[in-house]
Amino acid sequence: MDQARNGHDSRSIDPAAKEMLRIADREGYATIWERYEQQQPQCSYGQLGTCCRICSMGPCRIDPFGDGPTRGVCGATADTMVARNLARMAAVGSSSHSDHGRKVALLLKAVANGSNTDYHIADPDKLTAVAERLGIPTAGRSTAEIAGDVAAVAIDCFGNQGEEPIVFMEKYMPKKRFQRLRELEETLYRTTGAKTGLLPRAIDREAVDILHRTHFGCDHDPLSLVAQSVRCSLSDGWGGSLIATELQDILLGSPIIRPVKANLGVLEAESVNVVVHGHEPILSAKVVEMAQSPECRAAAEAVGAKRVNVVGLCCTGNEVLLRQGVGMAGNESHSELAIMTGAVDAMVVDVQCIYPALADLASCFHTKFVTTSEQAKIPGALHIQFEEHEADAIATRIIKTAIDAFPNRNKARVYIPQHTSTAIVGFTVEEILKALGGTPQPLIDLIVTGTIKGVAGIVGCNNVKVQQDFFHRTLTEELIKRDILVIGTGCWAIAAAKSGLMDLPARELAGPGLQAVCGQLGIPPVLHMGSCVDCSRMLNLAGALADHLQVDISDLPLVGSAPEWTTEKAVAIGTYFVGSGIPVHLWPLPPILGGPQVTKILTSDAKDVLGGWFFVEEDPKATADRMEQIIMERRAALGI
Ligand code: XCC
Ligand code: SF4
């Protein structure tokens, strides 16, 4: 699959990307594709997961095909190395999502106690709903009191020192799944005599537990390490990410179904263009809000610009797309291409998925590359420190930086590829249930009659090893053709939006059943559920169906996929899907194949134990076949 070697059109299927890559070739701008080529051949030990540099007697490596030593210096086996590396990936991924969730919880606390007045409770109904779910009394109490209690419960999920499962998970996870995990813990203890936990006790604790148990000379047992990876990932899906989603809805407003535009054509030649990139809408939502202020409007006009046009990239783009209807410039592999248009006056980033290469690239243009987070500083960037309690002022300063850069734009160098697609977005669980008339029953009926065979959730990134958006688009088309409703988040959602798959006419690509449903409800066959932390919305939808039917998630005709996955966060997402009972497809290959035992646990044993498991497949059509087959098997088991 060495796309990078086969000329520029093999790098992306996106028409805007193709145009920009031609410019990159002509002008000699370095891109991920070029640097990927320069990295060839990549280390095969790394690809198989069998290298270890956990202590200074190493680095050690094991050739899984039997050449050379079969143990590290300390005696660690290939499986130990693979399992430890995987656990660390899950810990980092979970921590990234969860630390994002923590900041939202702390902000809710600050808003509730009045120490932050730049934000407010934007959706009191959601606050009440979340409070009731958590068992917090609401009757006769003020919004601030309720918000304070919700924030306290959320914050406690991070640092609680008890042994009981985290409250958010206990209250949100469907009953049968929770029971199954608890019974599994008991069974493992009884049959092995060793304690193996699966239900997370606290979000921070499970990540630290992994850092501890993967220290030199601790846990070497592949099963135990995989179990802790599941536990930590569950603390992300049903903890940190869920807290991020729910509390962001409270603070920034719950998304509603609405049309938006996606692709580089959202940049405007006549306007000051600000691209927000990263993950945390606490900043980006403010940038969008402040761009509309009379002060910023006047400043933009004073430099001869039509307006300040804020557009999004990656997941923070998804957040403002969903809540504020902001145009979407693109997914991960579009980040360099956006700067190359010469029309971006500032790219403002917070945390996660930001190529450090953007700093160099921006310096070839008038573009201000602005970092804002203590946790994501990039050499060559302009750092404007973001502080929540001064959010309005700092967001305004950031926009002014873009406005100041605008006159330096070299108009002769500007090239904005004129491609956008319309996407209908904002399919939160609440919005889906509203469209269905308030209960999941109509969706269940459609699944029972086979009008819709099942639901596939697709997530994840762009990866330079896969032609950009090719797997996302092809797999999605193949699934809807088979009457499988596709929902998802992250950079997949952006790929689907750019491809037109989230527009109403896309229903013509769907099978007859799904097509009819889309016609009736006035929805596209492919539903945008948000950013990567909003994978928690998918868990909640699955949970609502499971609880309504009084079954486990693993009984339902649901499947998942991360077909262009890149980051450790994707490892955490895939793992909490599996831990929640959903089979998950992955491509490119995860770095586990050098550990036969770990591979067997994750691709086979997990099936019986957890009801969810991983499978790997390179071809989108074969992937769709396999996903359909799983759905049909689950339907048969349900007797439908
Ligand atoms: Fe992956 Fe999350 Fe990043 Fe996009 S942005 S590259 S994790 S899909 Ni969320
Ligand atoms: Fe080598 Fe063991 Fe040290 Fe890893 S922990 S680097 S396998 S000696």
From TrEMBL:
Binding locations of [4Fe-4S] cluster 1: 43, 51
Highest taxon listed in the record's lineage: Bacteria
UniProt: [4Fe-4S] cluster 2 binding residues: 52, 55, 60, 74
SUPFAM superfamilies assigned: Prismane protein-like (SSF56821)
Enzyme class: oxidoreductase
GO molecular function, one term: nickel cation binding
Binding site for [Ni-4Fe-4S] cluster: 279, 315, 353, 461, 491, 532
Cofactor: [4Fe-4S] cluster
Ubl conjugation as UniProt keyword: no
CDD domains recorded: CODH
UniProt entry keywords in alphabetical sequence: 4Fe-4S, Iron, Iron-sulfur, Metal-binding, Nickel, Oxidoreductase
Single GO BP term: generation of precursor metabolites and energy
Matching Pfam families: Prismane
Enzyme Commission number(s): 1.2.7.4
InterPro entries: CO_DH_a-bundle, CODH, HCP/CODH, Prismane-like_a/b-sand, Prismane-like_sf
Catalytic activity: CO + 2 oxidized [2Fe-2S]-[ferredoxin] + H2O = 2 reduced [2Fe-2S]-[ferredoxin] + CO2 + 2 H(+)
Family to which the UniProt record says this protein belongs: Belongs to the Ni-containing carbon monoxide dehydrogenase family.
Subunit structure: Homodimer.
Protein name, UniProt field: Carbon monoxide dehydrogenase
Gene, per the UniProt record: cooS
